[in-house]
Amino acid sequence: ISNADDNLTNNNATKNISIDFHLVLNEIMYNPPAEIGSDTDFEWLEIHNNASYSENLTGWFLQCDNKLKTLGGNLGSGSFLVFAKDVTKFYTYYSKSIATESETCSFNNAGDTIKLIFNSSGTYNEESVTYSPSWGGDGTGYTLEKINPNTNNAANNWAESKTYAGTSGQKNNPDNQIK
User: What is residue 18's predicted lDDT score, i.e. its pLDDT?
Assistant: First the structure.
């Protein structure tokens, strides 16, 4: 602060911050039941491009299980991308039309933190969720779904899906009707 004076009533500043929720962590299968497949082999995470434009994933990273995965390519407007522990096993249960990439992370059944990070040319952005089994989806066969992709990742914006095995590669439950 330059030219400071003794008048404390005028010593303030305001900065508006815009948060862009266009690329979001959208759905998590962290503890699938035995009838779907083994716990770690059938774990998956979905991201969603909520924007009206295609997102270039260069400069984006997925962080989970203390591992960092570099992303690339483009994710079209309104599109979904699933990261599966084992893509081959994922496709034995889910549609092969779902855009899927391999991910080596294992999601902790007792809760974990997953981050989607943009770090390029001095710009930093982070979409992060720390889920808990108290949110749902703990071996029940249901996923955790983000209720409103345009808001934060607080516990009250996530709930157990009403669709068994989740809605990978498609819009979450309509009208936010969560199980």
Answer: 46
Phi, psi of 175 (to 5 degrees): 55, 25
**Which pLDDT value is given to residue 17?**
46
Residue ranges, the chain, pLDDT below 70:
1-21, 120-123, 174-179
Quote the CA–CA distance of 138 and 126 in Å, as a whole number: 26
d(CA 131, CA 109): 9
Greatest CA separation for the chain: 71
Count, residues in the chain: 179
Residue 169 contacts residue 94 (beta carbons within 8 Å)? yes
Three-state secondary structure call for residue 44: strand
Q: CA-to-CA distance for 54 and 32, rounded, in angstroms?
A: 31
